[in-house]
Amino acid sequence: MSQEIRNLAPQRLWNKFADLNQVPRPSKKEERVIEFMVNFGKNIGLETIQDSVGNVIIKKPATTGMENKKTVVLQSHLDMVHQKNNDTDFDFDKQGIEMYVDGDWVRAKGTTLGADNGIGVAAIMAILESTDIPHPAIEALFTIDEETGMTGAKGLEGGMLKGEILLNLDTEEDDEIDIGCAGGIDVTARAEYDEEDAPESSVGYRITVKGLNGGHSGMDIHKGLGNANKIMNRLLFDGFDNFGLQIAKIEGGSLRNAIPRESVAEVIIAKVYDEAFAYDMNAIVNDIKAELHTVDPDLEVIFEKLNDSDMPKKVMPPMAQYFFVRSMYTAHNGVYRMSPDFDDLVEASNNIAKVEVGGGQLVVKCLTRSSVESSKLDVANGLRSAFELMGCEVEFSGSYPGWNPNPDSEILDVLVAIYEKQNGTKPNVVACHAGLECGILGTHYPDMDMISFGPTIKGAHSPVERASIRSVNKFWKFLLEILNNIPEKA
Questions:
Q1: Residues 375 and 190 sit within 8 Å (Cβ to Cβ)
Q2: Which is catalytic among the residues 30, 116, 145, 146?
Q3: Is 79 a catalytic residue?
Q4: Confidence bin at 344 (pLDDT 50/70/90)
Q5: Which of 30, 79, 170, 174 is the catalytic position?
Q6: Is pLDDT of 194 > 60?
Q7: pLDDT per residue as tens digits for the range 140-153
């Protein structure tokens, strides 16, 4: 760990972030970071609770003179998205994140940084540990599994928190104050097919799509970024008719909440079409690169001829392949509808996140988001129809609600006034297309006044994730002033 990170301002926050980033904390496997947080709370002498699903709550009394202020819930999630470049040798289950300073940015070496939501967690830890920061009574809520199901927020029981105000520290533009967010639902299509023997007079190829930027499937979905799964399907679409192409295997994408950056397919083609295949594929690749050159200038598509020993023995039958590639083409990816009520807000979208084909089975995993429940189901049913028409079983799971904006929020007025005083400009009060936990927490605590803000973080959910040092300092000063100006109890 570079000492350079620990010396950044504000030191107390960056030191906590450095400590946190030494603890592996993938979604669904948070045992170590839960233990880390429980030990932290107990070691500083504060009441520390681990609930039945693994959320950690640490309570700190008000500082002298602040006892009559409303109790504040400070909330961030413990898990992080684990993504790395293919050429990065890194074991997320055993290693801490390797960070470095690059100008105004803190980055990680070939992996996600964990600033989402580690900066928020670190800020809360620094406040809990402090002896010189004025604040009202605090209930620090550290949730689990935000990135792959929000099961921590869903499993939180009503009555565990007494706070009247919740500050969620999980947004990624420091000039924004969020008062609403999208809900989401996981859509999974599965099918089985009977493999057939690969024809003897065949040539094998490994096709690799890589070099895409990827990103957050909510916050970045409007940017027109390339989706490796859709690009791969475009390459394979007319392959059988033109070259006798048959699919042996596809592995594309990873997590539902990350726009897929890479996809690898193994295919066979009829030997007679070998030269034509390379020529035609390069023409398609050039078209795709031209379309994406502004947003994904580093896109690469590599065609490697397989040795005889690596040749696939089994492939997808032509009819199954016909329906699969057409269903993939039909399935919507990207922005589905912009909000008619909020300028520049994506209302509904879908991310075709992960595709696995091989061994007689195929699985396609999507994450559908919308700030309107009915349009969320509209997009999901469109995907369901596309995949059911090819014979897939389609499952909806992990649904969570959006967070309806409350423009009359009392704490919103406080934040807007402080932001304007500190920065000389008004903040952007927005709803976002990410899935914040506020919507779910609001079902357990419907009377709690909620707001979300955070420092500038770019490239979340991808190995180019980075946090602005200047912005983290701005965020820290903003947070401290908010705590110093919490309204009094009624």
A1: no
A2: 146
A3: yes
A4: confident
A5: 79
A6: yes
A7: 999 999 998 899 99
